[in-house]
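User: Show me an example of a complex going from sequences to structure tokens.

Assistant: Sure. Here are the input components:
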Amino acid sequence: MSRTPQTEMVTGAVWYQPGDEIPDVDQKLYALQNQCTDCNICEVACSLVHSPDGIVNPLLARLKVNHSPQVGKRAPTHGFGFAADICHHCGNPPPCAEVCPADAFYYDPKTNVAVIAQDKCIGCMECVPGCPFDVIFVAPDGELLKCDLCGGEPACVEACATRPELNNVGKQYNRAPVLFHADSATYRAVLQDKPEPRDEVGMMQAMLEKGMVSSAA
Amino acid sequence: MESRLLHVNLTTGELRVEQLPHAMFERWIGGSGINNWIMWEHFLKHDINCDPRSPDNIFVFGVGPLAGTGSGSGIKGRITFKSPCYGIFGDSAAGGKFPYMVRFAGFDHIAITGKAPRPVYLYLCDGHADIRDATHLWGKNTAETHTALNTELGDYPSHVHTLTIGQAGEHQVGIAAVVSDASRIHARGGGGCVMGSKNLKAIAVQGSGGVRVANPAGMLKWSREFRASIDRNEAIYGFKRRGTLGAVEMYQHIGSHFWRNNQGNMFRGDEVRSDNWVKKYHKYSEVCSADCFIACDGRYKIDGSESEKAQKYVGETFRRPEYLTTGSAAGALDLRDWAEVAHWGKITNDYGIDNQDLSCAISFIMEVNQHGLLSERDIGELFGRAQSLEWGNMEDVETLMADIVYRRNLFGELFHDGPYWGALRYSARTGRNFMKYSIYGKGGASFTEEMRPFPTWMNNMAVASRGADHLKGIGLIEKFQRRDLSKRYFNGRLEAADLSTPVLKGACTALVENQVALINSYGVCLFHWMLDPTGYAPEEYYGRAFAEVTGIDRTPEELMRDGERICNLEKAFNSRLGLRREHDTICERWMFEPTTEGMYPGRVAADMFETVLDEYYEWRGWERDTGLQTASRLESLGMGDVAEVLAADGALARG
Amino acid sequence: MITVHAQYQARFREITQVERESFELETPRVAELATRLTGKYGPTMQALLMDADGENLNTRGTLYLNSRGERVFIEDPLYDGDTIYFMVGIAGG
């Protein structure tokens, strides 16, 4: 894989020379299982940023909101089983790129993410089963869609309906956002360091008992 | 801007696709604006005085130009029809995923006329439409219908999204609602009844197409700005968490609830008086509309431990009650247990019926009974059985609800068009006057919120095109006393935000009606409007998004005129039906009985009502004595064609 | 020097952890009360109470009323013994 020159599609610039060591993706995308609100805004936002001609269609998105009620080990148990299926950006070269017979993957030098060069892709779909997480998608016209991290500022994370909680840890919500763009240490830290739950009901009750508030109408 | 309108004639089975010209967007924006025009044109060819349940009535569905564009805002679909329960203009909005899926299936508007010989559903997929047999779905509630259609149609090429009616719609109950995806409800006006009268059980849609945005980079920038502005405001985290339920505590404080048929304006139940009770049980995922970046919605699941009566509903799961679900259950009907309030929301949704009209009808009969005006014989005649009519009794509420949904006794027959017509019919039948217990405005049932202290709101109740309604000209400038907005819109004057004076209240109604008409036509959620960075200035802010999507660039002043044009078309529709100034009125209780509780006791509507109405007509440029539109104003809005129709019907001011 | 009372509701109460408290103000102005509140409760209160530029009170999704049921703005005067109710909520449903 890495022996092929990595070229940018439009300008033809060579990104990595043959034989170059390509470092692994540092900041990856993570999706929290079972906490997704199923609003699909990530799909719409993804298709909007990847659509220079202005066609917005969630089926052209590089991630999918899926209903998978089988809750993973670390997932919060509250929720209705929705999760965003999104590229995990495996170590380089990733399994999808390794199985590609056309060497159609190149590496974005800014993010080190493996991206499909559509002009080289022969549409054989080898990468679809090649992906261990089932997150390479096929558009209605057969184009293969893989997350490219939007060059380092993923639109899905920005748009996610739960996004403000990212800045709100420990404040009002005792939950984390669904989509993260972070390094794995940060992600693990957020998951393990759950913000302290606020029991407002208990507080109201305590106030009632202390006579600080009245229960009369 | 490309847009397709699907004509469906259920009598002949004819399906026809019409490409809407760009000029349509220039004139009517989209969403409710284009819906209104489609209905207006329909009734130029058909008798406007037809029975709303007849095949001549039209049922229009439409989405706004912002739907599914990544704006994060354009989430609302709108249905428009002649209302069977109010007898006048009727429309209603709901969010969810149905609207954007209709767009991905290649349509923007659907206009349905005629009546199918047997139950059918309409199936749309990628530019094609099909009328299919629905005999097997008839009799199912909205949730069952949604599930059955999902099983039947599968997950290819996309998920199935539906618009369904329940038993209420099938029995042509006047206040029947249309339910989107089994949980989002087009409640007002009786759209479900119109669908039922056409034997149309559901519309199902799948789509894999796309929507074109004129300027994707601009759209992206716009939605980024909006998100950033929302995320900065701490108050919005509360809204995301509680939805409109966040208003319960505030309304309790200012005295804005609707208790026991508006005999009071504060909740009495300890548990329901604070929004804490929502959070106590809020141990489930939030859900939200498609392409909405606020996510104010949530789902509950009852495990039995929550409250005294929760045991009855173990395992039940549905959307968390919003303010008006709570207002109708905990307020109008005085249910005091959280599980009951939630259950009320679920069953009204399953039957497919408007819980505002329904709660007002039930609380009307309960109040009449409370005053000892119903003898045992009266009750026997109404219900065909012994029936207790006790406030806060869930069993009574459920029985009465079923009476109306199935129209299975005299009570159901009299009250299935809501409390106004119910009270009229019952008064006529018994020769006694019960109208003072009926809470209504312009023939429509109240929504369950107090409005006597708020002059703009009471004006809304009287003049809204679809009957008593707070959403057409929502008086937030006044209720939230926004002096800053009053200053901005009325040349530095502050009166619009002052609750103690009638001055500028009519003007405020007219202004906000125009803005809301714009918002509805963009297909934007009203809550997005309330939270937009400029603070209630849709003509500036959403005008930009509209330009990014359609390429139609307008100044804010032009957009306000567009809004006014849309309002005037709704008014013209009602004028053709014979509505005049005397119909712009509200019920006796609001007029003459003072409020007793909250921050604003002792208010009656009669103090300011006529002054505000006069001012409203003046700002609208309508004739004061008749409330009719004038040719000059309509022509200045580019509506000469509408003026001609009105003149022919004798519904244009002579002056 | 005047004494005013602040009564908190919903989100405000979560931040302050008390239902009601009193402040003694040098100047009888809402501006001073706002400064005292943001000073006492920090950036979360700032983000809730004030708008983005930090010059005016936040008007989106909030309602601040005095004892007479009138909304208060940053430039408004306060009187001795006034109670200001800090509320959060979005109308309708």
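The lines above are the inputs; the final block is the predicted structure for all three components together. DSSP finds six helices and eleven strands in chain A.
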